[in-house]
Inverse folding.
């Protein structure tokens, strides 16, 4: 079982609201970095002396909030609050490679279901919306054995989910997740130096 903690780095993702009385007056919030945490389990199906193949599945959650104000001399001033929560349920094949009996290299990828929740609020109204959409992911990383079947390392995951919100239309969550990882194996019997049974 692998626990993950890090951040999602997004590209050019912004939310805008216009003044109903003067549509040229627009206030905008932007996504930069979303804190991210999750858990992923791996089930080997084929195992050799230094390699494993199998399937993995897990859940990751990212969230973000931002507030912006437009004070351009118009009346009234405009403010916008935006809250976003993104949940990713993923499943796909993975491969492990053991190096020097103590370092684990892994890759994985496949489909994921993205669920997004969006809340926005201005002086005159507030809206909330949610969306499900099928996406894809690819990930990899390296971990070092800490003994007793546990490992610590660094991983990266590319994620893409296009979510459709009524208030703002299609939103592409397309970004790189940089994650610290902690993995603990479970089982019984004799372990080797890498913690495998």
């Amino acid at each position: 079982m692998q626990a993950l903690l890090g951040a999602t780095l997004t590209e050019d993702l912004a939310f805008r609201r216009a003044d109903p009385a003067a549509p040229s007056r627009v206030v905008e919030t932007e996504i930069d970095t979303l804190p991210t945490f999750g858990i992923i389990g791996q089930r080997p199906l084929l195992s050799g002396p230094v390699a494993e193949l199998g399937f993995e599945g897990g859940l990751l959650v990212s969230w973000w909030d931002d507030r912006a104000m437009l004070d351009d001399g118009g009346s009234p001033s405009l403010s916008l609050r935006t809250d976003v929560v993104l949940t990713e349920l993923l499943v796909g094949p993975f491969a492990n490679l053991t190096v020097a009996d103590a370092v684990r290299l892994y890759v994985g990828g496949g489909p994921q279901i993205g669920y997004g929740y969006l809340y926005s609020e201005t002086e005159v109204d507030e809206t909330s919306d949610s969306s499900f959409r099928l996406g894809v992911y690819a990930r990899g990383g390296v971990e070092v054995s800490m003994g007793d079947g546990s490992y610590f390392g660094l991983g990266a995951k590319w994620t893409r989910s296009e979510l459709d919100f009524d208030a703002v239309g299609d939103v592409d969550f397309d970004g790189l997740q940089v994650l610290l990882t902690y993995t603990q194996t479970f089982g019984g019997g004799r372990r080797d130096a890498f913690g495998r049974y």
